[in-house]
Write a structure and sequence with these properties.
By secondary structure, this protein is of the alpha+beta class. The chain has six helices and six strands. The chain has a six-stranded mixed beta sheet with strand order 1-2-3-4-6-5, sandwiched between helices.
């Protein structure tokens, strides 16, 4: 909770009720990176995930819908085959030291362990507010994919093997950095991997 408030601001981090719900419904999907300290452990980062049946959703759905308002009570291990990445965060003082990469690798191992077919997530476009006056969100994502601009979130995810499926609005409606825009991204295990995406689409059904 303290780490999420440092990143998102007081009153905007994960609540105790949400984190407890994650552990109640899907403990394997909740990952933390820690280091030992004289007092115990220090949290360097975390990743929160749930399993969904993608056919139950539209690609244009919001983060609140995909995560049941952050409670993960829509976790569906019965018919779901998609690991949905609801959150990855790292301590700002630890960025660039491989914490995020380690969390992503752990997620990928979880997909293999559980026999799931993919990871999907919404990558909030943290850098889009700097370009919104001169290009659409889809144009911005295309520029990031070509390496002409660097987005703090999407560029990292592309470097981890994710592909862009589409660009959607109102994913996080009150986010001043993304202005609500996100790229819907996907990572496939080797045995299910298809050809890379070559274009960026607008909001569409999932």
């Amino acid at each position: 909770m303290a780490l999420s408030e440092r990143i998102y601001g007081a009153g905007h981090g994960w609540s105790a009720a949400q984190l407890q719900s994650h552990l109640d419904v899907f403990p394997e999907g909740q990952l933390i990176a820690v280091v030992p300290t004289p007092e115990g452990t220090r949290v360097l980062g975390m990743a929160a995930s749930l399993i969904i049946d993608w056919d139950d959703y539209e690609m244009s759905d919001s983060w609140r819908h995909f995560t049941d308002a952050g409670m993960f009570t829509n976790h569906n291990p019965i018919t779901g085959r998609t690991l949905y990445g609801a959150e990855v965060m790292t301590d700002p003082e630890e960025r660039g030291r491989g914490v995020g990469s380690a969390l992503y690798r752990a997620r990928q191992k979880l997909v293999a362990k559980l026999g799931l077919v993919r990871i999907r997530a919404g990558a909030r476009l943290r850098g889009y507010h700097r370009f919104a006056s001169r290009m659409t969100a889809a144009e911005y994502v295309a520029e990031v994919m070509r390496g002409r601009h660097r987005d703090p979130t999407l560029s990292f995810q592309l470097s981890r093997g994710f592909k862009v499926l589409g660009v959607v609005s109102d994913y996080l409606r009150n986010d001043p950095e993304s202005l609500g825009w996100a790229a819907v991204i996907e990572w496939l295990p080797e045995h299910t991997r298809s050809q890379p995406a070559t274009s960026v689409a607008g909001p569409s059904g999932g």
